[in-house]
Amino acid sequence: MKVKELKFLLKLVGRENYQGKISELKPNTKTKISETEGICRDLCDYQYVACSEEITKIKINSAGKALLKLNSDELPVSADELKILKACATETITPGKTKVTPPEKRQELIASLVERGLIIAAAATKIERVWLTERGKEFLAKEYDPKGTNSVLSLDLLSNYLRFSRKYFGSYQSVSPSTANDKPNNNGKKPSDEEILQTIIDLDRELGTDNYLPIFHLRNKLQPPLSRQELDDALYRLQRQDKLELSSLVEAVHYTKEQIEAGITQDVGGSLFFLMVN
Fold first, then answer.
1. Number of Cβ within a 10 Å radius of residue 45
2. Which residue segment(s) compose the domain that 182 sits in?
3. How many separate domains does the chain show?
4. pLDDT along the chain (278 residues), means of 10
5. Phi-psi region for residue 47, left (φ > 0), alpha (ψ -120 to 50) or beta?
6. To 5 degrees, how large is the angle CA 29–CA 31–CA 37?
7. For residue 63, what is the enclosing H or E element?
8. Are residues 184 and 269 both part of a single domain?
9. 51, β-bridge pairs
10. Of 46, 83, 105, 263, which sits 20 to 30 A from 74 (CA to CA)?
11. From CA 161, how far away is CA 202, in angstroms rounded?
12. Could you tell me the sign of the dihedral formed by the alpha carbons of 161, 166, 171, 172, in that order?
């Protein structure tokens, strides 16, 4: 691994929840943002990190122009998607000129239109946020073997790595093999529904998720002693009592595959992913 890639990773593990803006992850102050994005893309190829990207300019193509000529009742697009198509019908524009809000929804709709071949991303995408994947955690904790005699890391970066390692191995040592299969916690009791609700409140406060807690945080906390099905059933009970709301995931680019799979799968629509206390 190159030194700049290592510094990028160690800056990332120093951020809350191992995620941050690309501008916060420059290996050093002289590194240009374009070079930092290049480092990030290489690390994405290794599957050590994942990132969300923003399309910076768009323009309509022939398929999009043909669609605009159809009868409005026949258009296979939503009102906001139609607004985007009309906004870029005569010129290349930035996404902000579409007037579709919020920005996260706008980017999701633009990406969908690009994928369906109705508009073109007229400029390179810009990386917004980066997060460490489970593969990246495993690599840093178990596989990376630094060599050489020259000191290349600051004490701050070394501190980031030590804190990460302690947390990583501590989380695995806290659950021994004999307690890993749906067994109760040390006091012999599984948490009640009210205790689960309080855990959600505590995690939301600790992580600063503004009453919009991704469910994988709760699974990491309570499985074990609860099984996945036991936790799902408890969440449904709390929902029926109007103590909790469950919301589906709309923009998946901000989360890893493992985090997304922690959601509660639905027969129709996306998985339930966010927890909101009433």
1. 9
2. 178-277
3. 3
4. 92 89 90 92 90 85 89 81 92 89 82 87 79 89 80 84 83 39 48 90 82 87 84 88 83 73 74 86
5. left
6. 125
7. helix 62-68
8. yes
9. 130
10. 105
11. 26
12. positive
